[in-house]
Amino acid sequence: MTLSNFTIRQKLIGLVLILALGIVTTSCLAFYFSYQDTLSGKKEQIRSVVQSAASQIILLNQRKNAQEITEQEFDQRLHDLIYSTAYGAHGYLYLLKNETQIHLHPKRSDLEGLYLEDITEPADNQLMINGLKQISTEPDKSLCWTVSWPKPDGGASVAKLTYAQLIPDTDFILGTGVYIDDLIPRYIKRALSYFVVTLIVLLTAIATAIIISRNIVSPIINLSAQMEKLSEGDTDQTVKFTHHGDEIGQMARALERFREYLIENKRLRYAHEHVQFLENFDPVTRLYNRRAMGESLEREIIRNFETQGKVHFLFIRLDLLRNLTIELGDEQRDQILIETANRLKGILSINHRLAKLSEGSFGLMLVNKPKDTKLEELIDTILQTIERPIKLQNLHIQIVARIGVTSYPEDGDQQFELIGRSEIAAKTARKQEQSWLYFSQIKEQQVESKMELWQDLSTAIDENQLYLVFQPLFDLSNNAALSAETLLRWNHPELGPISPAVFVPLAEQSGLISRLDHWVLNAVAKQCRAWLDAELPFPKIAINLSGISFLRSNFENKLHTIFDQYDVSLEHIELELTEGVLIEDLARIQDKLQRVRETGASISIDDFGTGYSSLSRIKNLPIDHIKIDKSFIDDLDANTQDLKIVQAIILMAQGLQLKVVAEGVETELQLSILREAKCDIVQGYLLSRPLSVADFEALIDEDLIIEGD
């Protein structure tokens, strides 16, 4: 088991225990060595006393041998010396003769004359006798040893530190000793001193360790718990200890920064998820939106392609809903939509797919329609269900609906064809005051006129009946004109002005769109050359381009050829692509966009929010701008859902370093809302309608700036 398996608290406790053990061990060793030093000191003390007395006995013996004193005087002086010598509290000398015969003993005179072998008192006689014999056989021998011996005042034998020395030229052995238990009070006093000092040091070390432990462990445990909560997504807590100046403070401040990153990531993730939800679902009814319905319808068309099985689509238009919104407000309108959606879901089967296509319309796709389900009976049931009065507070509101019906493959093999044509059928039904209408009932009337218009469009391209107008885009950071969008116009010799909403889809369906794109590119290049020659400082010109032309393999070469012909740099140009281009393979479209940008032209995505793209898909694409579709701007001041979508798109796009353009701005309130939402660029009739070349040149010359709020 490694240290990493233990908690910091356990490690610190272990460290404190080791420290405490070290302190106690050190104290015990110190006491032991002190004890040994005391014994050594006592040994030196008794050795010194014995040697001092021995030198006096040697001197007396020499005087006796020199006959300076008599034998009796010698014995008397020897007696006086032994009996008078004392040291310490209980120290005394004794004198032995003939190895083990007690000659003089100041504390036990009753033992004088006796041999140690004859003493019957409890004592370690044999150990004493062996030591004395060892001394007597070796001249100048002295010996220190410990024996068990009774005290002079009687009692049991106790340990005694004994020292004895043979007196030269005599048969006397002089000895003394110290009873070990006489040292116990001193040992106890010293032990108490060591214990007190050890206890103080130990308590101080433990207290310091506890303080340090709390200063380290508690913050770490707290920070660890906060880190775990943050990993679980709890960002509401406040990180503590950020004021610390040590490593704990560094960890806390790093954790606080991590928390802030999590909060920011959570906010961006929520915004991203909200945008993703809004890309597929209507926030009011929680039904599919137009984009999701289009994808679902496209999949169903592909699934039935080989079998040519029928797929029906119903466009359900609620009449006068906009008027009710003006009268009752957004909240009541939303309640009407929710109630209508719930009613429709209640009568539909699992194979029916319902969506909210716009503010006042629903779409219904019949998937794998059972044979026993009659389409016309279902339509009548839907109409009756919608027309039932809806109770709103004290009001009963009755909604009238119109339904347009298309079928695959008869009415088209693309989702936008089926949806668009069913909407045309619903509008036609209203004009003809019918409840519902098949698109096939009006299709035949359109085919003949469409063929004639197609022929006229081809002629118009060849004979230059088309012309350009320019609608300025304004930068909200400085309110100045930033660029201009090129718009194509057609003035038919007989029918008069033809809307681009009519002839551009016709060009796409009839194969004329590439010729139309070529005409526009050539016309823009020619106009830019004219402005350059006139030294007119025109802004960047944006060109709407079809995906068909853009995705052609030779598009970049074609772009260079056209603009090189007029010696115009492509840096003056911005290409606007619809979202449909982005349904291509991501790697392919990314490479294509990069190669086009390398020509010098910038790129923007037009009508964002109505097609297939998403911010998550375009985040790695080399584009400069995204243009929020006009349908989101139209009701920006009245529809809170549109406002939320616009705010979410702006937030996410700017997070991806993309500029956001809002098109279709028609009211002061819309402009104010877009300013507040931090939109970058705006265009619309409020600021400027599409201008002819002359009017646009006049605007450039005036250096027009919109008024700020």
TrEMBL record:
Pfam families: dCache_2, EAL, GGDEF, HAMP. The chain crosses the membrane at residues 12-33, 191-212. It comes from the Bacteria. Keywords: Cell membrane, Membrane, Transmembrane, Transmembrane helix. Residues 214-267 form the HAMP domain. InterPro entries: Cyclic-di-GMP_PDE-like, Double_Cache_2, EAL_dom, EAL_sf, GGDEF_dom, HAMP_dom, Nucleotide_cyclase, Rev_trsase/Diguanyl_cyclase. It is found in: Cell membrane. SUPFAM superfamilies: EAL domain-like (SSF141868), HAMP domain-like (SSF158472), Nucleotide cyclase (SSF55073). SMART domains: Cache_2, EAL, GGDEF, HAMP. Coiled coil: none annotated. Residues 450-704 form the EAL domain. Residues 309-441 form the GGDEF domain. It is a multi-pass membrane protein. PANTHER family: CYCLIC DI-GMP PHOSPHODIESTERASE PDEF, OXYGEN SENSOR PROTEIN DOSP. NCBIfam families: GGDEF. This is EAL domain-containing protein. It comes from Neptuniibacter pectenicola.
